[in-house]
Amino acid sequence: MLAFLFGLVAGFLTPHAEEPLAEPLVRAARGRVVFHPGEKRLLAFILCLLIAAVLLAVVSEGSPFWLVLGGGLGYFATRLIAAANSR
Question: Any transmembrane segments, and where (predicted)?
């Protein structure tokens, strides 16, 4: 269950982590790697999930399945909540 919660937090924080986590990597790779629009957010999502996975490994808890499921739900949380409220 902890993995699911970590995934939710990682997915939800992805837009906020885009500038501090992904932007320096994109700038460092500029000229060697072409990043298309939207890929910076994907890179931030991957980094957030990686951080969550490392934290889970430290506490010896969780399953990759729950981490990824929570991450996906957390990533789309604001849109899912808005869709549920519009009904």
Answer: 41-59, 66-84
Of 45, 57, 42, 47, nearest to 3 by C-alpha is: 57
Q: How confident is the model at residue 72 (pLDDT cuts 50, 70, 90)?
A: very high
pLDDT higher than threshold 90 for residue 11: yes
* Residue 49 burial (C-beta neighbours within 10 Å; 0-12, 13-18, 19+): buried
Q: Which residues of 12-28 are buried (b: 16+ CB within 10 A; e: fewer)?
A: bbbeebbeebbeeeeee
State how many domains the chain has. Answer: 1
Instruction: Give the pTM.
Output: 0.86
User: Residue 26 sits in which domain range?
Assistant: 2-85
- Helix ranges (H only) for the chain are 2-17, 23-29, 39-58, 64-75, 77-85
Q: Is the pLDDT of residue 27 over 90?
A: yes
Three-class DSSP category at 59: coil
